[in-house]
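Hi, here's the filled form for the chain we discussed.

Project: internal
Contact: R.S.
Residues: 767
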Amino acid sequence: MTRSPISPTPVPATTPPEALKHAKGWTLHAEASREMVGVLFGERFEVQEPIGAGGMASVYVCKDRALHGLAAVKVLRDDNADTRRRFAYESRLLANLRHPHMVQVLAVGETADGALYMALEYLPGQSLDERLIRRGPLPWREVVELAAQVAGALEALHRVGVIHRDVKPSNIVQIDSAAGRPVVKLIDLGIAKIHDWARVQAGGFTPVPRHKTEVGKVVGTPGFYPPEVALVEADPRFDTYALGVTIYQLCTGVFPTPGEYRPMVEVRPACKVTPELEALVAAALAVLPEDRVATAEEFQRRLETIRTAHAEDAEPFLFDGCYELIEVLGVGAKAEVYRAYHRDAARYVALKLLSARSKANFEERVRFAREARVLSAVSHPALPKLIDCRTATNRKQPFIAMALAKGKRAGEFCIAGQTLGSADLIAVGRQLAGALAALHDRGILHRDLNTSNILIDLGRETTATLIDVGMADLTDRFYAVVEQRYPTPPESRLKLGTGGLEMLEWTAPEARDGKGWTAKSDVYSLGLLLYKMLTGKRPFTGDSTEMVSPRTLVPGCPRALEAALRWALHQDPDERIDASELLAQLDEALEEMNEDAADAGAPEAHLGGATPTKATTAVRERPRRTLWFIGGMLVAAAVMLAWWGGRMTAPTLPPFATPTTSVVVPPAAPEPAPLAVPEASGPANPAPLPEMREALKTAAEELRRCASLSGGSLLVEFETAAGNEIFVAAKVIGPHEERVGRCVREAADSIRFEPTATQTFAEVYNP
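And the returned structure, exactly as it came back:
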């Protein structure tokens, strides 16, 4: 097939509306164009300009009332039930993927007439196909840089089992860059193949069965799919082949001949590509899949090697005279973030630049300057350290240089199957609650704590970093406690708008109702984030305000953690705990885990890089004697009395909601019977091997110990092979420490059973 019918060909931001209507590959319906302008999707996206309509969907340029920018909204017009299911499930899965070089899904929903829609970020710029047509082949150095960005996006897709299947220049958009460096984004996931549903199923969600692509049926764009496309199921080599074709076309202006590779320097001598790039593209276009570049990760690594090897031959680019831009970490409507090297200070930094669109907006310039001011005023391990900034509102290109943080965005841990165990979640929660407490102590409200602006690193120590404070609000306390060379008088204290934050999911109910933000509104946002990273689900079903107990979804969740989440998500801000109280609650949850681990003979949960509080240390070291226990109860009672501050009655926790779908937890396996010792005169023949499921039960106790090491429920996938009496694979689904995976493998290696048919299945083990 040709171009996917539900994605517009991107055009330059300066293209006039009349030209926009005639973008390549589209047919506009004039009557629909007149009727749809002004229509509101999901009370958020207001149609400004229909881009086009295809057989299954229509696409519109919309004003995003929440983010005060533009969005491209695809509206599905096909009533076929299977098409609707595919659109709904895939859009929700892809909405959780975040990569700086992949178009971002902003929201999904239904229109008033029941049609499904998906809102994507609007990309001002042009496709590489359009650039190729207008200006001819690109310089090979630039092609290498852009292709490396695309390879990075493909690697992120492949890591979660998604094959793009339509990589080509018209699906790569080059956007306007604040730094003047080439930046692209991969678009059009309309025919993407989802291979790995295990992560979705791990959350208790079972997708409706879908039809596999029939053997012999070709999906994709002619010239960009590999020779075996009609013979096998899609795999990452489909995308590496298409990326090879794309590089060849961008460098030469022509398609490669399938099966007969002709060097690019022969086709177009002026391209002057290096032998290393020639060899890489030739390998990507190999006829036999086994001879081809196997993964996008390998493709990206080889491109980076080529770029580095010839860096000395290229003209150096230094931003502001000292910052060497290395790679894009994030590109949004308001700013761009780069991993950069500060040559004068000889260190790596995160360099944030105000986007071209935001530079023209006075409020965004003031907000950018305020972000630097906040980072300068607050020091906390979970907040990036300010290194340098130039944020004057009259500066041509404002920037902020911060300490470089490690980790993945929190949104990657909100997908069921990739969620955090209780120990890691508590470590993350303690650090973020501490950061909020530090901000609030200085009179700063964050207001925008969400899955995209937090990095989590599960290395030797679990760490969390709140990387964006661009929507922070300054209260009167800030001006009273933060040292200022030139104090700001009350009449000069600017009150900036909220940017539509009231309409976003992570916003506290009182702020959504227009009652404004308080410090406790930030706590609600953190509670929502922690709940989603623990369970992979939202805490409320439908319009209900009753929280579903996390213990029904994650049975290993400590009760103190459950209580902390209930208090943090209390609908009434007067009854909700503040950041310091949340930190204390998480300390109690950690102590509960350590006590349970001690009772089970397992090691204590680590603090994940956070410094224990005095209260935590004291509780951990207390002897377990009756006298101490009574003393602890008296102290707890005194704390509770101080908490309620003399109220006549103590507040009541909100009730739990009953989940609409139950999570089935396998019953605990019985203790294995002791092995009988045969008598010397007994038969020499060994006893027959047990059936596979019965044999698995004998290792249940050991696998539950593995779960205790992970700090929560453990989802283990087992694989058998015909004729084998052992498991050929046993792996933990989702992020985990190496010791947990090793524990599972050792437990599985000890199991022998009667050979069975090839199969793959998963079991849940609780501590």
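Let me know if anything looks off before we file it.
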